[in-house]
């Protein structure tokens, strides 16, 4: 692998972040808002799972942000508009990361002290989930709409491939 391949590390890590943190948001909301849906044992297990997803999600987010900056400074295929879009994706990413980092530390520090998740925490993690979804949407837009980091498909001389 050469140095120019490194930007492609970013898409590997971002999907862990999105999966783990969105699952954590859903589990926190379910356990707190619909506790009667589950037996006590299941509820406790889901609650533990919600925290581990949050902590691992934040860990992967550190890698996603680091590789994001690497991609930001090394992607070759982009113009002024896609550069502008990259800036917005970066800003949403840093906002979501900051929020989840605080929530992760908060949840870790207070784990021994309180058993019930506060409504303030719940609202904050819900907003974090929305911000992360917007970050991911903007990341996908960069690649699939603006072709950032994409190598062009080779142009063939022959007839176009049109069966799908
Ligand atoms: C929580 C952190 C982040 C998440 C969840 C995230 C999410 C994403 C997603 C889903 C994509 C599309 C990947 C694909 O489908 O191929 C993407 C692409 C991209 N992101 Fe991020 N991102 C994050 C942080 C950052 C940061 C901090 C930067 C810049 C400083 C950045 C720069 C880029 C660039 C340049 C691309 C297009 C090139 C590539 O895919 O490598 N990202 N991001």
Automatic annotation (TrEMBL):
DUF2231 domain span: 8-151
Pfam family membership, one: DUF2231
Record's keyword annotation contains Transmembrane helix: yes
Membrane spanning residue stretches: 12-31, 52-72, 92-109, 116-133
The entry's keywords: Membrane, Transmembrane, Transmembrane helix
Protein known as: DUF2231 domain-containing protein
Phylogenetic placement of the source organism: Bacteria, Candidatus Aerophobota
